[in-house]
Amino acid sequence: MGAQLRVYKRRIQAVTATKKITKAMEMIAASRIVKAQRKVAASMPYATELTRAVTAVATGSNTNHPLTTEAESPARAAVLLLTSDRGLAGGYSSNAIKAAEKLRERLAAEGKEVDTYIVGRKGVAYYGFRERKVSESWTGFTDSPEYSDAKKIAEPLIASIQKDTAEGGVDELHIVFTEFVSMMTQNAVDGRMLPLSLDKVEEASTEKGEILPLFDFEPSAEDVLDALLPRYVESRIYNALLQAAASEHAARRRAMKSATDNAGDLIKSLSRLANAARQAEITQEISEIVGGAGALADASAGSDK
To answer: How confident is the model at residue 199 (pLDDT cuts 50, 70, 90)?
Structure first.
């Protein structure tokens, strides 16, 4: 019985240590969410105005440019998948991967070949385990991305959209990331970065009561679009990286809170079992003492006779 009690105590100690770790990780993730939210909010005005400028240039000129002109028969698409470098974040990375798989199936059904670009060790490990080809990957910054990381990711994507498909280029650029809605809600979404859907941008501006500004283009609209192309892609990727980072922290905080609560419940259960084992041990000891005392009394009474 004593051995069983020692087992319960060791398990309680182990679970208590785990609970301290998960609680600390929960608090760290909660503190990082606020900072990530501020970065997301700070990046939105630049991305919004840049999109408006690109739309104004495209609608105010007849220039054919990969930023705004769709191919007649698109045959190849690039998909950028944003996942996490670390685990312990619930279904954060797996949900993004599932969304990417659905997008891949949809593009394949449309007759398009897919080039995959991945951010985060979780996505790289998923594709590596299944021996799937990855055009390029980046790791080491998913929980705290910088604009320089977005520029590094954008370079090969921009180069691929500027090439002909016969030379290994692509007709479309898509991105899959986890959109931060609130502390409790994060959704894995996919969107097309290029070519830019002008109709959707104009509809969104109309719904908000906005009027797209008018610009004069010097030296030409094509040169302006050439200059705006890398800025637009970089800003979209950077905003997605920031939203993904905020979502990762929120998912990790929620997962660690659940783990901490479960550890607390397990400690209570083990404590009850340990108390029951201790009570049984005490009862057995009392029974042995009473039995021993009775035996001595019987032996003494026998000797007196």
So the answer is: low
